[in-house]
Structure formats: C-alpha cells, structure tokens
Write a sequence for this structure.
C-alpha cells in the first residue's frame, strides 16, 4: 500500500496539465484584436483557429505560436529579448471587441472552438498576394482574410 501511494504521488506531481496563464490569455486575445477586430467575431475566431491549428491543438504550444517572430504583423514591434507585451495588451483592450476575443481564448482552452477555416494554418488580407500563397490550398475567405492549409 505504501508503494502504491508513492507511485500515485509521483504520477500526480510529475503530470503537468497544459495551461495558459492569464497573462498569455491577454496576449493571445490582443493578437486576435489587433489582427482581425475589423473582421468581427468570425474573423477573430478564424485567426485563433490558425493559431490553434499551428499548435497542433496543444495548449502548451499556443503561446509560442503567437509570439514566434514573423508570424503575426501586430507582434512585430515587440520581437526582442525579454519582450514587454503590456503596450499591445493596452492597445487591444481599448477596442470594443476585446472581451469577445478573450472569451474566444477561453473557449479554445476548453477545446470547444469551432474551426471556421477548415484546418487553415496560414492567412493574409485580400489586398495582397504573398509569394507563398500559391504553395497552399485555399480553404476559405472570411471577410477580408483568405485562409490556406498545407493540405495541397
């Protein structure tokens, strides 16, 4: 019995449930607002799905996807060692869509996010045609964003 308790204790203390901190939630929500607030909830959900799909739907990978350099234009001003995200959080919180974006992050954490992008992992606005877009499969256009997957 003593060994069983010891084994259970080891399992419980070494098994870390993937979680996103509240600070990370605010940064992710800020990314949604700054990338797609003008696209409404559907557009912000689509951007969050790109993040979720890039992270292979693993919570511990979501935040690193968001802060990875050259992925989201709204993050360009803070790519540096020891970045301070306070400025983008404050900017995003002034937008009327911030509460909706934050709720979307909570829905994703519960694994209840409906994918409105058909598994997309890339997107761009409709007013540009990046060189890479021809290498991927067009999945859906949501308002002013075109979404792609690498399923070609």
């Amino acid at each position: 019995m003593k060994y069983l308790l010891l084994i259970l204790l080891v399992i419980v203390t070494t098994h870390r449930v993937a979680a996103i901190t509240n600070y990370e939630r605010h940064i992710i929500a800020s990314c949604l607002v700054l990338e797609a607030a003008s696209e409404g909830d559907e557009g912000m959900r689509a951007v969050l799905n790109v993040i979720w799909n890039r992270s292979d739907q693993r919570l511990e990978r979501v935040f690193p996807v968001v802060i990875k350099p050259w992925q989201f234009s709204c993050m360009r001003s803070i790519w540096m060692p020891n970045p301070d995200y306070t400025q983008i959080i404050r900017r995003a919180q002034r937008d009327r869509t911030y509460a909706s974006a934050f709720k979307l992050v909570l829905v994703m954490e519960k694994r209840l996010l409906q994918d409105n992008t058909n598994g997309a992992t890339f997107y761009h606005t409709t007013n540009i045609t990046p060189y890479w877009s021809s290498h991927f499969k067009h999945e859906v256009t949501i308002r002013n964003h075109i979404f792609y997957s690498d399923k070609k």
Q: What stands out?
A: The first helix runs from residue 2 to 14. The first strand starts at residue 122 and ends at 125. Residues 8-16 have pLDDT under 50 and may be disordered. Strands lie at 122-125, 137-142, 145-149.
